[in-house]
Each structure stands twice: as structure tokens, then as C-alpha cells.
């Protein structure tokens, strides 16, 4: 039982580390400047 719990915790930590890495990568590669979105809600302008 303890071995299964250990595997679960290691797996959960791996998922968190991978998700955090993907988030940081996307934030760093996001283009700088102004973002313009046109959708069914209208037009939105957002500065990055």
C-alpha cells in the first residue's frame, strides 16, 4: 500500500512540474506588444 502511494505522489509531482514548465515556456515566448481580439463578444485590445 505504501509503495502505491509513493508512486502516486511521484506521478503527481511530475505532472505539476511538467505543467509548470509548459506554462513558463508559453509566458516567455508570448509576443510583446498589443493583442487585438475580434470575436462574437466584440473587439478587445490588451497590452502584453
What does this structure look like?
Keywords: Membrane, Transmembrane, Transmembrane helix. There is one protein chain. With 48 residues, this protein is of the alpha+beta class. The chain has one domain. Helix content is 56%, strand content 25%. The chain has 1 helix and 2 strands. Strands 1-2 form a two-stranded antiparallel sheet. Strand 1 and strand 2 form a beta hairpin. The mean pLDDT is 90.
Topology:
Elements: H1 2-28, E1 34-39, E2 42-47
Antiparallel strand pairs: 1-2
| N-end to C-end Cα span | 48 Å
User: What is the number of helices?
Assistant: 1
**Strand neighbour order, sheet with most strands:** 1-2
Shape: elongated
User: Helices and strands, in N-to-C order?
Assistant: HEE
The proportion of strand residues reads 25-35%
Derived structural class? alpha+beta
User: Strand count, sense and closure of the main sheet?
Assistant: 2 strands, antiparallel
Q: Could you tell me the mean pLDDT?
A: 90
Number of strands: 2
Query: What Rg do the Cα atoms give?
Result: 19 Å
| Oligomerization state | single chain
Poorly predicted runs of 5 or more residues: none
What is the domain tally? 1
Helix content percent band = 55-70%
Keywords: Membrane, Transmembrane, Transmembrane helix
Transmembrane segments: 6-25
